[in-house]
Amino acid sequence: MVTIDILEVKTIFWDFDGVIKDSVEVKSGAFEYLFLPFGKEIAKKVRMHHEANGGMSRFEKIPIYLEWSGQVPLQHLIDEYAAKFSLLVRKKVIASEWIDGVFGYLENNYNRQHFFLITATPQKEIEDIILSLNIKHFFKEVIGAPTKKNDAINILLKEYSIVPESSLMVGDSSSDYYAAKKNGVPFVLKRSNLNKALQRQLDCMMIYDFL
């Protein structure tokens, strides 16, 4: 397994849910609640899919879940469910626990390393969340959906003339891993109870927290 000294790299690309805030299960519960009217089995299937695909945008997930529920995933219906989901999760994400040590790491190192936030949360929503948390100043740029993570990393590598090998991505999902890999960026997996299968699959540095 490759070991990386996080303190020594020049640039870190951060995922948000499950890496900065312990908010993955908040969103699991919201998805389950939204699709519960279609039955407990559908709701459970939705929750399991979300937890297995944490870095996937809700705008990619909702059409799948609507089809499972026997609905035609027309754009107005996708937008309606996305708006309901956003209302359910925003306050809960803000109120969720910080991943141990991450706030201190960001606060102590943002002046000596370059931090970028790369997330599947919609752009306006993540901007509102980080403003509420008073952490916007930690990040040189924040990129959310609809920009895909691999595209976001590619854009930033070019815009800031970042050498991929001198950076890393900290994430907790397969989409984070593949976004980093596609751009030649080393990857660090934030371990959790929800990504145990991924832990067995990957040969990369893994951490539990930032203490």
Strand order of the largest sheet: 3-2-1-4-5-6
Average pLDDT, rounded to a whole number, is 95
Question: What structural class do helix, strand and pairing data support?
Answer: alpha/beta
Percent helix, as a range, is: 40-55%
CATH topology of the largest domain: Rossmann fold
Distance between the termini: 21 Å
Overall 3D geometry? globular
The number of distinct β-strands equals 6
CATH-scheme architecture of the largest domain: 3-Layer(aba) Sandwich
Which regions have little confidence, pLDDT < 50, spanning 5+ residues? none
The figure for the number of domains is: 2
Major sheet? 6 strands, parallel
Residues in β-strands, percent = 5-15%
Radius of gyration: 17 Å
